[in-house]
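Hi support team,

I'm opening this ticket because the web form for multi-chain structure prediction keeps timing out on my end. I have pasted the exact lines I submitted so you can reproduce it. The total is 456 residues across two entries, so I didn't expect it to be a heavy job. Is there a limit I'm missing, or should I split the entries? Thanks in advance, R.K.
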Amino acid sequence: MVLVLYGTEVSAPVRAVLLTLRALELEHEFQEVDLTAGDHLKPDYVSKNPQHTVPTLQDGGAYIWDSHAIMGYLVQKYAKDDALYPREPLQRAIVDQRLHFESSALSVRWKQLKHLLFEEKVTELPIEKLHETYALLELFLDGHEYMAGDQLTIADFSIVTSVSTAHLSIAPVDATKYPNLSAWLTRISSLPFYEQANSIGARRMAELVRAKLPKQFDKLWQKAFEDIKSGAGKI
Amino acid sequence: MGKITLYGVDASPPVRACKLTLAALGLPYDFVVVNLMEREHLSEAYLKKNPQHTVPMLEDDGACIWDSHAIICYLVSKYAKDDSLYPKDLLKRAVVDQRLYFESGVVFTNALRSITAPIFMHGIKVVPKERIQAITEVYDFLETFLKDNDYIAGDHLTIADFSVVSTVTSLPVFLEIDAAKYVKLTAWIKRLEKLPYYSENSVGVQQFFGLIKNLGITVEA
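Hello R.K., no limit was hit. The queue was backed up. Here is the completed structure from your submission:
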């Protein structure tokens, strides 16, 4: 059994799968797909994934894509128990709703913002839409330590990758405005495999975004990165 | 089995995905209309059950579940006599799941809702060209997914068909499906129209079309 993950670490959904692979302690190969070079549009890749997105997972002779589908597959196939993706239908329904929330409200908004920034060269980004999403995540966390209840699940892995990227680049999570979300970010970032699986890639993406924004944001990013270095904001 | 209640409106595609699934499973349920124009989804009572204040929402013996995809997976897992609508085989399930996430992200949110949110919330009357391009991409991908399959996730009917068809049959009010260009897509829709309970979708599609047409929406040329 050989698991190969195709992707690039600046991509949030790729990192969500990396977090899951690490949590399950699954050995895997990583095959870099350079999106800027159009690797994902080459016939070899499209034959594996006709939607030509990252990540794609190869398990033996099968190819699976969409990070949420991959994460569910990995837990169901390889985990020792169902803690990360509960089998009980009601508990699973909560995780599924959080995963679809990520796929729609978070992922799509982030992609649209990236499109505005990188393709349309817009620098006045409608980040209020991200704040609407933060407000809902704040509610989901009400009375719970994790996104889908009292236990860590793949919903946390999926959501933390996009939230951390937004947090580090254009919409920092204000702890006074979003106390639950801020505490949750700190909690997830304390996982032993978090730095390797998410942090590095999220920071790289944040730098790419930052490079496109006007200079007046520089002081803000300087402070944010200093906080990260000093451990004050361990994300 | 406790009481099942579905909250929503027929015009809403994800509500129709739930109705198709409930009908396919032969499950009795109450339907409670949530008048979105009257902001009933923002009432204190509704927010207590669903803080995301969306439709559909399912109440099953007191437990509240939302997001159509989560609802339909739940219904099959809990009530179906077999797993054909949502296979237990992990590779087959991964394909159904990918189609469901494709639906929630690329089809519903990026293609449909990106058009309808400005219309319903900000009174926008003209659909920008790039939003029409997003619909074309959906039709293109679905044509590809159907290349070697009769159904959206493989060789038999699954909840992915219910989820995708509800939105895809709503998009033509903005961009018609060119039957000559999208041969497989057109054939797949016709195949699903033959389902004995397909009216659970078609009635709502007509309502949705009526809603958009009455608002005098046009598409940027």
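A quick check on our side: The CA atoms of residues 86 and 93 of chain A lie 9 Å apart. Let us know if the file doesn't open in your viewer.
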